[in-house]
Amino acid sequence: MPRPVRDVVFVDGVRTPFGKAGGMYANTRADDLVIRCIRELLRRNPQLPPERVDEVAIAATTQIGDQGLTIGRTAALLSGLPKTVPGYSIDRMCAGALTAVTSVAGGIAFGAYDVAIAGGVEHMGRHPMGEGVDPNPRILAEKLVDPSALVMGSTAENLHDRLPAITKERADKFGYASQVKTAAAYQAGKLQPDLVSVATRDPEAGWGLATVDEAPRETSLEKLGTLKTPFRPHGKVTAGNAAGLNDGATAAILAAEDVALELGLPIGMRLVSYGFVGVEPEVMGYGPVPATEKALRQAGLTIADIGLFELNEAFAVQVLAFLDHFGIADDDPRVNPWGGAIAVGHPLASSGVRLMTQLSRQFAEHPEVRYGLTAMCVGIGMGASVIWENPNWKGDK
Amino acid sequence: MSAAISNPNEVVTRALLRFVTLPSRERAALITLDNGFDHTKPNSFGPAGLASLEAAIDEAVAAAPKFIALTGKPYIFCVGADITGMPLLTEREQALELGRYGHRVFKKFKDSTVPTFAFINGAAMGGGLEVALHCHYRTVSSGAAALALPEVAIGLVPGWGGTQLLPNLIGIAPAAQVILQNPLTQKTLKPAQARELGIADEIFEPADYLERSLAWAEGVVDGTVTVIRPEIDRDMWDGVLFFARHQLDERLHGAVNSANKALDLLALAKSSTFENGTAAEDEALADLIMGDQARASLYAFDLVQRRAKRPAGAPDKGLARDVTKVGIVGAGLMASQLALLFVRRLEVPVVLTDLDQARVDKGVGYVHAEIDKLVSKKRLDPGKAAKLRGLVSGSADKAAFADADLVLEAVFEDLGVKKQVWAEVEKIVRDDCVLATNTSSLSVSEQAAGLAHPERVVGLHFFNPVAMMPLLEIVRADRTDDATLATAFAVGKALKKSSVLVADRPAFVVNRLLTRFLGVVTAAVDNGTPIAVADSALDTLGLPMRPMALLTMVGPAVAHHVAETLHTAFPDRFGVSANLGRVVEAGKRGFTDAEGSPDPEVLALLQVGDSPSTADELRDEATAALAREIRLMLDEGVVADARDIDLCMILGAGWPMHLGGVTPYLDREGISEKVTGARFLPPGVANAP
């Protein structure tokens, strides 16, 4: 049966302010964070009848406790979506929410869904990295991968080894720039519109309200140079040139373009292509390079066609590896113009949608840009890259 | 805070002040009430808690934030004044200070130059709702369990501003309903009702209640949200209160001081200044706190809320055996009602047996029909209903009891019949299957005598209607073992009944006392006292039902049967009324008709003497009889102590909470001392110091 492939659009996205593990969300449940996002999406888009949501895909890396129990389904129910709306959980570590988006997008293009919600959550305070993992002993016995592949910071050090042109100074400088750009974006009110306030309870202090990210800090290049390198003595990776351990959630509405138009939903971005690849797990940070090449190839585009980049800053070194590969300057204004994960944080499985939400906002400000890209590296050696088209683009003029 | 009213045992609800940054980057003050425990121990206001709230509001106002909001811990806003501290107040001056202190602190929310909001996130009762009423605006969570001003029910008035603020916020008629009618009928408001009445200005869902409330509050302050309040109609004020007073007199015969005071305060709220109104509240509250009714109410409240949850004399819970299947002997109305109760609460197979299939089918049909009714009233969801229907079955063959863990009999009240039932059942069931009798007056020990395993026989005396009445008298027979008794208590708890352990003495507690009391009344009728005089002689006690109505509800046949049992046991005190026998024989529903007037056909049947009593004589005789009987029961060890008598009479006979049950009334009126030589309760336990 022949059938047309439908265009998929990113309608709207929100996120909670990101907290520091053990910080403002210490007494807040992970599922409540993502529920807050889903409810805010529905509140902001009253044109969308809740029963028209065909799927809720929520990513979490550690799917136990308050991130378990098929969180996509339970979060849908607890958000007040009709019981007829299904949901599921999804995991591709750091690219969880990104994969939730591409998965439901595939379903929309295929015609299985008209509208879907995709998002992610990671409460790294409640679920530290590696909680409950049980690596197969063959990994060591058969030397399938280097043991350092399971420690993300070590893979970043490995990447520095292989790309000696990326010095610690460049990494620190990039980290510092992320803080500066984030502070400027906050000052200009760029980030706040898509932040969902979260009531946070502290049994000793009473209820509070999270309205801004907890991780960004004022710092200086000099200070960054003095930080410890926890993954290797005399190494290069520090808390200043890497994302921290964070708590947060994101969610976005995806829809078939014709359905979005029918319902009067805003169109933030149009999906062009996406690519996932595997790389050597010891240098997982390199993943976005081949992933982006794959996505560009599929779309028939070159890197020169991309006018805006939202690259996840798990580590400065992996972003710099990407920029060097494609011949882009460290301080290219098209890259992470509002800063990135080094400043705001990286609650693993939630981050992909943050990149997309920000890119769609930047598209609105840049009608001269036709294509943008969201990309991230993924643990155990993967890369993920999604290319988007700006609906505000009015042709080459 | 005033040291004069401090309570060393207060569980302090702290007012935690935090300044929060709103999405607009402006600053608001958020005060959280939290006593440090989970929702099973709700927030309340004692003197130290009020001091904490005062410090928080003072600091908040001084910081000049955009607005100040007050909210609670999860599920609980605040359930009002800490009543556990009230028995400590021994001087009127202390009682006055308690009222004044609350007013002083709450008023700061009303007089604040910074806009104040209450975010009623959970249960809000009494003083909890009153502090919210002092705030300039209120939101409520649709998940809040209940909102209420229940003070009148425990002998007090909403004396921290409730009587003055509420009628001026929502109007006198709804206010009278919330302050008077709801407490006296044990009703509370759901959040949607509170919103509809105008108690809350806005309602939000629990999932993002606080976030939405904060955003709404900011909108109110910015003027982007308009709050619409109802217009208060002052012309109807006096009329509404006249009508309310009339209704109360009819129901309670003017016996409840708190209700009368509340009416006076509501009248004052029409045109008084807030200062005069709250001063009057202080005086009223002090009068009530220093009066007997409030103390008796607090005593009764403690019995129902605490003592009933930890029954005196119950064995170790760990001894209880699991009950995974229940057999019920009999499929008549009582048996079917019991089957419905057991299947709803225990959700285990329940099998009814009777002499033939037709009766069994009728019993099962009744249960199924009742389940359907619950579904149509939306009190049961269809899935659960399907489960319950599948669990109820019937059989004409008692072999269906073979794997039951508990068999309850609800057959005719005749010792011979019951003994025959047990002999038959014991051949079928396991040796440790609990055999429970729902007898209202027959000896449980005699029922067990002759069985191979008498240690598993126990009495479970339910009250009619079994779905509604909260009391379960658990009867320990001579040889009942602890495991059986523990199982009985566990079942009682699962059935959501309040269980009281009683000895195997004739008619146990409630029926013995009601029969004694009704016996005096019927004897007076036999002697020629007009029915109307006999029926109203006890009005001053404020009982929920006059004797003749009670007789009709119990049923003349049952009342007559119990009277005969007690007459056999105690012939000197319990008579058998020939006239009651005639009523039973004629198949009448009582001495009076449906409207409560003497039934002419019954009057024609009666043969009465010519020595009528006056109302006063009759009241004195009836209360003296009660005092004497209670003393005998305590001497016989029917219950652990007088508090259990009161618990039984409150929960099983609807004796008013404001009387504290029966013994505080008898003590207070001097009847116990006069008739039995001593009080039942030490002074101060259930009366004013």
Concise summary:
Chain A has 397 residues and is of the alpha+beta class. Chain A has 12 helices and 12 strands. In chain A, strands 1, 2, 3, 4, 5, 8, 9, 10, 11 and 12 form a 10-stranded mixed sheet that branches.
CATH superfamily of the domain at 8-125 and 244-389 in chain A: Thiolase/Chalcone synthase
Considering DSSP H and I runs of 4 or more, what fraction of the residues of chain B is helical? 40-55%
Architecture of the domain at 8-125 and 244-389 in chain A, CATH level 2?
Answer: 3-Layer(aba) Sandwich
Shape of chain A: globular
- Report the β-strand fraction of chain A as a percent range: 15-25%
Query: Class of the domain at 8-125 and 244-389 in chain A in CATH?
Result: Alpha Beta
Distance between the termini of chain B: 23 Å
Q: How many strands, what sense, and barrel or not for the largest sheet of chain A?
A: 10 strands, mixed
Say what the CATH topology of the domain at 8-125 and 244-389 in chain A is. Peroxisomal Thiolase, Chain A, domain 1
Which percent range describes the beta-strand content of chain B?
5-15%
Q: Tell me roughly what share of residues is in helical segments of chain A.
A: 25-40%
The backbone outline of chain B, from C-alpha atoms, is globular
Instruction: State the helix count of chain A.
Output: 12
Secondary-structure map with pairings?
The complex is a heterodimer of chains A (397) and B (689).
Chain A: E1 8-15, E2 19-20, H1 30-44, E3 53-59, H2 71-78, E4 87-90, H3 96-110, E5 115-123, H4 138-141, H5 152-162, H6 168-187, E6 198-202, E7 206-210, H7 221-225, E8 246-256, H8 257-263, E9 269-278, H9 288-299, E10 306-311, H10 316-326, H11 341-344, H12 351-365, E11 371-378, E12 382-389
Parallel strand pairs in A: 3-4, 3-5, 10-11
Antiparallel strand pairs in A: 1-8, 1-9, 2-8, 5-8, 6-7, 9-12, 11-12
Helix pairs in contact in A: 1-2
Chain B: E1 14-21, E2 27-34, H1 47-62, E3 68-72, E4 76-78, H2 92-111, E5 116-120, E6 123-125, H3 127-134, E7 137-141, E8 147-148, H4 162-170, H5 172-184, H6 191-197, E9 202-204, H7 209-222, H8 237-252, H9 257-268, H10 274-289, H11 292-305, E10 326-329, H12 333-346, E11 350-353, H13 357-376, H14 382-391, E12 392-395, E13 406-409, H15 415-426, E14 434-437, H16 444-448, E15 457-462, E16 471-476, H17 482-494, E17 498-503, H18 510-526, H19 531-536, H20 547-554, H21 556-569, H22 578-585, H23 600-605, H24 615-636, H25 642-653, H26 663-668, H27 671-676
Parallel strand pairs in B: 2-3, 3-5, 4-6, 5-7, 6-8, 7-9, 10-11, 10-13, 11-12, 13-14, 14-15, 16-17
Antiparallel strand pairs in B: 1-2, 15-16
Keywords (chain A): Acyltransferase, Transferase
Family (chain A): Belongs to the thiolase-like superfamily. Thiolase family.
GO biological process, one term (chain A): fatty acid beta-oxidation
